[in-house]
Amino acid sequence: MPSKKSQPKKAEVKSEPKITDIIHEMRDGVMMDVFMSGEKEIKAEKAKEE
User: Which of 6, 27, 32, 37 has a CA-to-CA distance to 21 between 20 and 30 Å?
Assistant: First the structure.
């Protein structure tokens, strides 16, 4: 059963050669950067209040 599921995905990957994978990786990286910078800003603001 899993082989049938993987075949259509392979066709999709061939039609869009790894560009989507790169975009997903970049998005994940950007989201992590935004999240981390957001955390730092929140901590900085809390430190200022104290």
Answer: 37
Please state the domain count of the chain: 1
DSSP the chain: -HHHHHHHHHHHHHHS-SHHHHHHHHHHHHHHHHHHHHHHHHHHHHHHH-
Is residue 32 domain-resident?
yes
Structural domain of residue 27, as residue ranges?
Answer: 19-50
Query: In this structure, is residue 11 part of a structural domain?
Result: no
Confidence (pTM):
0.37
Q: Comparing C-alpha atoms, which of 8, 9, 7 is closest to residue 21?
A: 9
